[in-house]
Amino acid sequence: MRIPRGFSEELRNKADILQVIGDYVSCKKKGANYWACCPFHHEKTPSFSITPAKQFFKCFGCGKAGDVFAFVMEIEGCPFPEAVKIVADKCGVTIPIVSTKEDSKEFEERDRQRAELMQINQWATEFFEQNLTETAEGKRALSYLTQRGINNDTRKAFRLGYAPQSWDAMSNFLRSRGASKTQIERSGLVTLKEQGTGFYDRFRGRLVFPICDTQGRIVAFGGRIVAEGEPKYLNSPETVLYTKGQHLFGLNYSREAIRKQNYAILVEGYLDFLIPYQAGVKNLVASLGTALTENQVRLLARYVRQIIVNFDPDSAGVAATKRSLELLLAEGFKVKVLTLPDNLDPDEYIRSHGSDGYLGLLKRSQSFVDYIVEEAVKSNNQESPSGKVETINAILPYLKLIKDRIERAEHCERIADRLKIDSKLFREEFNKAVDTRSEKISERAVTATIVVKPAERKLLEILLNQASIRRQMMLQMTADDYEGLRTAHIFRLIFKLERQGREPTYPALSEELGDEDMARELLAKLMISDPGDVLEGAAIDQSRLEQVTREAAESLHSLRCTKLAEKQAALQIEINQAQRSNNSARLSELMMLKFELAKQERALAQWNGQEDKEAVKIKKQ
Ligand SMILES: [Zn+2]
User: 67 C-alpha to center of ligand 1: Å?
Assistant: First the structure.
């Protein structure tokens, strides 16, 4: 599309800059000028001025200035021709087209169809609105809205309506207004019959939410079933006005608030938008589907670069959150995640806790990394290296999207801390994965980051080399003592061989370990370093035996203490989360656990190796 020379000049003179800018920000007259809070930088007192006489705007805060087109290009993030088109639309002026004959014909035809459909959508909206308030059927839908807490002002402002349970009420209405059969067919308000002839109303027995473009023109409709039926939500199909995944519900209402607050809250559904909006939290948009699309992200980027994602906490919501995070991060957004307690969505939460409660939670939203880490930790067993591998590989794709290396390194540090792995090795492995564009970290790499604790090494050395102490120690040990350790598989094997009545010799163990090079290497080291010299045989040095036995018992005790401390640290993270989200039911559960762990801690603190010495004495007799 080419805009003829001279047209933009003409339009600039014709357009009322105050009216165009007034669509985006609220302006107040003071002297010869109008003043507003600048939409391009954050401010509380207006320094953005509009001089209608000169058709010019200037911000004394950030220095942005220009004519009506400059303003639209800046605020919509669009190129000049599109700005001209937007201004022309707002002023009700058609752009004359110059290009090839065919192009211009096609363009004119499309433009004509768009104009027709806008008119039809306008009629349809009136029809839906009337049905909601004036028919018995509609009133049931209306009472559903009332029940969900939508008041009349909101209903009217968003032009909510009702599609009656009928096959042809809509098409008859449109015909009565003068729409042709072809126009109705193209409108998306009817569904074509499979036989190819005729059509029937698309929306039946549904609450209808008009979907607008950023200019506030109704481009499509979304319908929610009122009684029983499938699907629960139904949208308009694609038309000349509507392309799926290109619009965000409510953005035409919320964009000013979004700019002012400098962040947007992304929600899923219509009510998740309407209820907070009605309660005064106005900087929201709804994705109109389960997950965000790239185009929606680009649309948002025109207005804001910071987002709090607040989807349903159910599994579909978690998946949608993750998908949205990927897209937002790829576009360079700063992203946080809010998960509401008790499985509530924003609509339910605000109805039960009010907007203040909601705003309080918004302030305490999690960084997206914490969200991803906690989701990954929840769904994998952190006690085993393979579980840690799964966890890390679930986090990796998101971590890679952080462009800032310093920020990334900080996150690596915290993740390593959370997963109890060596942070330096983890960062190296992570950077390797980024450099090689690898999607995964190997189990080997993760295992390497799990530190072999000195006590763990000591205990294994003794178990492997001292048969008499081994049997005695194994009576006291359970799987809980070694699961989660770097060497858990070696412990497991020793126990397995013991049950089979076999000695844990190097050949027996290494055969079972198979290809695990690292474990075999470690095993070899452990078997060579015999801690007690030779204790078996005729001349048993009793005091030496006692000493090694005590060392084994102390090692086990130390491992138990470390494990308990780790459990307590992990529990504390969960407690903090529950406190952050005011989840009192979960909190009291966790406090019980904390109490339980404290009890264990006291028991461990009382240990002095006495019972083990007793055991040695009994054995000696
Ligand atoms: Zn400014």
Answer: 15
Q: Are 269 and 291 in contact (CB under 8 A)?
A: no
Torsion, CA 271, CA 276, CA 281, CA 287, rounded to 10: -30
* 76 Cα–ligand 1 center, Å: 15
Q: How many CA atoms lie within 13 A of 13 on its CB side?
A: 4
Å from CA of 46 to ligand 1 middle: 9
318-349 pLDDT, tens digit each: 999 999 999 998 888 899 999 998 888 898 99
Separation between Cα atoms, residue 408 and residue 439, nearest integer Å: 16
Structure-token pair, residue 516: 């695990």
- Predicted local distance difference test score (pLDDT) of residue 619: 44
d(CA 79, CA 60): 24
Instruction: DSSP for 119-187, please give it.
Output: HHHHHHHHHHHHHHHHSHHHHHHHHHHHHTT--HHHHHHTT-EEE-S-SSHHHHHHHHHT--HHHHHHT
Measured in angstroms, how far is the CA atom of residue 259 from the centroid of ligand 1?
Answer: 12
Tokens of 572: 């504390």
Residues in the chain, pLDDT under 70: 1-2, 4-5, 97-104, 107, 289-290, 514-519, 528-540, 609-621
CA of 15 to the centre of ligand 1 (A): 22
Cα 508 to averaged position of ligand 1 atoms, centre (Å): 75
Q: Which CATH architecture has domain 7-91?
A: Alpha-Beta Complex (3.90)
Q: How far is the CA of 18 from the centre of ligand 1 (A)?
A: 16
Find the 356 Cα to ligand 1 centroid distance in Å. Answer: 29
- Residue 262 Cα to ligand 1 midpoint, Å, equals 13
Helical packing angle, 542-580 and 584-606, nearest 10° = 160
CATH of domain 251-364: 3.40.1360.10
Alpha carbon of 213 to ligand 1 centroid (Å): 25
CB count within 10 Å of CB 241 equals 23
Instruction: Say how many Å lie between the CA of residue 249 and the centre of ligand 1.
Output: 27
> What integer pLDDT is reported at residue 156 of this predicted model?
97
Which of 143, 196, 133, 193 is CA-nearest to residue 164?
A: 133
| Distance between Cα 465 and ligand 1 center (Å) | 75
49 CA distance to ligand 1 centroid (A)?
A: 9
Q: In the chain, where are the structural domains located?
A: 7-91, 102-235, 251-364, 371-449, 454-620
Q: How far does the centroid of ligand 1 lie from the alpha carbon of residue 52, in Å?
A: 18
Preceding amide of 276 cis, omega within 30: no
pLDDT of residue 618: 44
Task: Assign 3-state DSSP to the chain and report helix, strand, coil percentages, each to 5.
Answer: 60, 10, 30
State in Å: Cα 58 to ligand 1 middle: 8
Distance 60 CA to ligand 1 centre (A): 6
CATH, range 454-620 = 1.10.860
**Backbone phi, then psi, for 481, in 5-degree steps?**
-70, -30
Superfamily of domain 102-235: DNA primase, catalytic core, N-terminal domain (3.90.980.10)
- Calculate how far, in angstroms, residue 333's C-alpha sits from the geometric centre of ligand 1: 21
